[in-house]
Amino acid sequence: MEIILTLIVKIVIIMSRSLIKLFSIPLAVFKKLSIFYNDIKRVLGESFVAIFISIFGGIIAGVFLSMMTEQLEAFPGLLVLIPGAIGMRGNIFGALGSRLASNLHIGTLSPELKKSHVLNYNIAASLILTILMSIFLAFMAKGLCILLGFESMNIIDFTVISVLGGIFSSMILLPLTALISLKSYENGWDPDNVTTPLITTAGDIFTIPSLFLGVWIMLLIQNTLLEFILFAFFILMGLAGLFIGIRGEADLKKIVKQSVPTLLICSLLGTTAGTILNSRLGIILNNPSILALVPLFSDQGGNLTSILGARLSSGLHSGYIEANIKPAEEAIRNFGIIILLAIILYPLIGLMAHFATTLLGIPSIGLQEMVTISTLAGMFLLPLILLFTFYLSIASHRNGLDPDNIVIPLTTSLTDPLANTCLVLVVVTILGNMVY
To answer: Last residue of a domain, which of 216, 247, 280?
Structure first.
């Protein structure tokens, strides 16, 4: 009897161990899924404001752009200029907002934004950078059009439109940036989550209407003496601004010297993105609703890149992610978060672009086609975002560079040409059977 009881106990123990092993696998999977869900919930909660603001601004910018088909035809090459101009405004005034917020926090700038040395040199630097980069964008856009054999307007037209657009948008963005910075200080907003997205979205919203106004003025003065006078005046303004920025007082010189190289690279990448769109101008002009998708698509690519770059940077700093060539578990989990966000965002922006254009009477390619284009292009872009953000983070960390200062600026700038390439390829594939 004792032998039988001992045997039964052993059998029960063996069965218990087997059951524990059997259930440990789904329990481990459930635990990982639970952690993953909590991460997704936290990222969505923290990023919702920035993503919502970005989508709202992208829709407005996209609708304005889709209504500019006549101007794009009348001024060939204008589409090459637009992505760079949008990105430049966000970069210049986003940086201004960050500097003002920092000075408010450390007490060197009054919350009433009274006239002061700090406010003066920040405003002067932003105006100088706007003029300089507007001129550079014009020459870069013209140069790329010549290099790639695109039909384009002359350099005087490019310059006058670009600088006028920069001046008009600055008239709105300067006081708006100051106001947003002040409110962010008063309310304790995180500049990364609220202030910077608000300013960059304002740049999206006001840049295209400002360029539209510049084009309208150009129609009035084109091929007149006044156009040449404006061109010469803007060039002189740029040279004077460069001289003041290089030879001016220390704080102004520091901003200009540190900003110009980064802005030049971003502007080059922006105009490159414009050439990709311009290469299929016929398809785009015949389907203006595609233009409504362009700012939305680029913005969301930038959002995903920024979120991944920030998470990888934090992980590398804290030691949760090792700087290995092969992505480890923590890095792969971050990839999963970005993939899930992309699956939500890309169909959503296609849906919103369709309804926005339809509501305003802009001819749409159709709901199914718009969502399909947005989703497929997003899925093609996604692995590129994951790979270059991850390896740039690893490379910068291994070389003793701060990923916060390297990864996000470079990856978000690189996203525009990559996003436009993916978008154009999918548009041509789906709509390319049409004759133009």
So the answer is: 280
